[in-house]
Structures are given as structure tokens and as C-alpha cells.
Amino acid sequence: MENDKIRFQLQDGIAVITMDHQKNLNAVDEPMIDALMEKLDECDQDEKVRVIVLRGEGKAFSAGGDISYFKKQIQESGRVTLDTMITKSGQLIGKMKRLKKMIIGCVNGPAAGAGAVLAYACDFTFCSDRSKFLHSFVNLGLVPDFGGVYLMSRIIGINETLRLCALGEGLSAAEAEKLGLVYKVTSAEALEEEVQAFAKRLAAGPTIAYENLKKQLYEANFTGYEAFLRECEVPTEISCTDSEDFQEAVKAFIAKQPIVFRGK
Question: Considering the domain 6-190+206-254, what is its CATH architecture?
Fold first, then answer.
């Protein structure tokens, strides 16, 4: 399935999935998640696909959560409800880590919130020196979804994950590379060429060995992931989205007013 938010191309064993909803900077909503999961499943089963590239079209890789979707919900019902999307978001990241095929992230600009976690979930992530990674969940009174805490704490440790997510701090491309959250930083002009060359290298490599390496890494590091989603991430995220703090923060953000958290 393709929809109006993603594009797909397959050439010489390299599948390119492009998030292309530029009017909201490729922000992630439920239809985007559904489309990505279905296309990843198709690529995993297609013998012609040897490697996958995930990229964003336009000025950003992904702006994270879709504020326009939040605004529409508030206009229709007076509050934001994200229960189904929260569940699916964690499943998308789990699928990426379980996938038989290697996934290369191609980050051409800002990656915020869920967009940053999508970038980190790729097996190898390239980004331009103009890229920034923003961990802004807390600024709306939320905790990370998309398996963000589980994934990030395994890459950079508990203390760095706490710092970034509790303070809503961002990272430059160079800082993300130093922490190991991305594989390589290139110039903006060279990014697509570098990704294509690396994709060709993996496409020509031992894909059965890659498949089994990913399986080993998943078993070594992610066997508790599904339980984490079910027992921790989903309930804690729903607790936050049901709070007055979150509902009022979204309204204030849309109205471009200061956000005041009251602990309710």
C-alpha cells in the first residue's frame, strides 16, 4: 500500500521509502505509521529487496508528532486522544529492529521527537551536517513513545537518555554521531550520494549473514521490548495524554501562548 504520505522506489535491490508529506514536515500520524509498517513488511518478504533506505523529502526528515492532527481533534472533541497511535508507534520500531533486511536512515534535516527515534531505529543512519535531533516530548507534557526510552538507553545509556528526554534537549549532527546515535555525518550536498554508495555495498553483501546478525542483536537486546511497550510505555504515555497538562499544553502551543504545567 502507498498513500499520499510516502513514496516507494526499488532499483538494483535497493528499496527507498520516502516520507513525503512536506506541508507538515513529514510529521508522523497513524496513517503514516500504517503505511510504513505495511511497506516494510512488503520489503521484508520481497526477494528482490536486499537493503532498505528510509528518508524524508524536503526540509526535514520528520517533525515528529503531527500538531495539526492534535488541533483537529481539539476542534472536534475538545481534547486529544492518541491511544491507538501510541500502541502502533512502538510496534513500528519493533518491526524495524526485527526486519531481516538492513535499514539505512537518510536524515536530511531536523528530526524531532518521534522522527528522531525513527532515525535512531535504523541499522545505519547517515545525516547531513545541517541535521538536528530534538527530544521535545517533555515540552508538551509527554514521555517518549516509539520505543524511544528503550532504544536510546541501550545506545547511549540511562543518564544521557534522561538528560535529553527530561530537559527536552537537542543534539547537533556531530553530537549525535559522537554518542553513537547516527553512523556518519556528511555534507548536505554529499548525503544522498554517500547513502546510495553504502546501500550498494550492503546490497552486494551477504544478506543471509546480515539477517542472522540482526536476529542475534534483537535477541541480545530486545527480547523484553514487547513487554516494555505493553506494561510500561503505552500506560505511561496514556497517563500523560489524559492529563490536563498535555491537553492545555497542546492548546497553548497551537495558540502560540506560554505553556504552564500544573501537575494535573
Answer: Alpha-Beta Complex (3.90)
